[in-house]
């Protein structure tokens, strides 16, 4: 029997469509951006290919059958050496389950996966003003000041 406040981390694979749906729903709520995460979800074939690919990693923190946290990451194969980097694209924990070590446990699981794949670093971005994320990442890694640019695709 699972004790209250106990969670486990599960890697999401192509056959885990229900778990991935739960992750997307949780992201939408945690980021207060339900439209992005829920209005145009990919079809099953696309999601299976993504989840079973070598470049994408999805993890869910599950408590009593509910996804309460998760992360989505991409492995980037390097060209200058035979190694890779892992980029955490999204990481969130639902508001009711924060401050319980879930985000740290997700990152620790990603570290194990990344190490097994031959990655040498995990990197993540945080927005100015997102103090909880900045505190978490500062506890786990080294802070770098960088500039981020979005470049539109397509011709004007």
Keywords, separated by commas or semicolons:
156 residues, Aminopeptidase, alpha+beta, globular, 33% helix
Give the DSSP E fraction (strand runs of 2 or more residues). Answer: 25-35%
**What is the total domain count?**
1
Please identify the top-level CATH class.
Answer: Alpha Beta
The name of the CATH architecture is 3-Layer(aba) Sandwich
CATH topology: Aminopeptidase
Structural class category: alpha+beta
Residue-averaged pLDDT, rounded?
Answer: 92
Low-confidence runs: none
Helix content class: 25-40%
Question: Which sequence of SSEs, written as H and E, runs from N to C?
Answer: EHHHEEEHEH
End-to-end gap: 58 Å
Topology (elements, then pairings):
Layout: E1 8-11, H1 17-30, H2 34-38, H3 44-51, E2 56-63, E3 66-77, E4 84-93, H4 102-116, E5 119-124, H5 131-140
Parallel strand pairs: 4-5
Antiparallel strand pairs: 1-2, 2-3, 3-4
């Amino acid at each position: 029997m699972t004790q209250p406040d106990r969670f486990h981390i599960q890697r999401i694979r192509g056959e885990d469509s229900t778990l991935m749906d739960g992750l997307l729903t949780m992201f939408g709520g945690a980021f207060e951006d339900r439209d992005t995460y829920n209005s145009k979800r990919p079809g099953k074939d696309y999601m299976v290919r993504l989840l079973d690919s070598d470049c994408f990693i999805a993890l869910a923190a599950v408590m009593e059958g509910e996804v309460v946290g998760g992360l989505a990451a991409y492995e980037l194969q390097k060209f200058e050496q035979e190694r890779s980097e892992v980029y955490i694209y999204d990481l969130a924990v639902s508001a009711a389950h924060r401050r319980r070590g879930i985000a740290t446990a997700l990152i620790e699981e990603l570290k194990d996966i990344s190490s097994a794949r031959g990655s040498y670093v995990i990197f993540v971005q945080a927005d100015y003003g997102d103090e909880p994320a900045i505190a978490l990442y500062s506890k786990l890694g080294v802070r770098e000041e960088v500039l981020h640019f979005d470049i539109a695709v397509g011709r004007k």
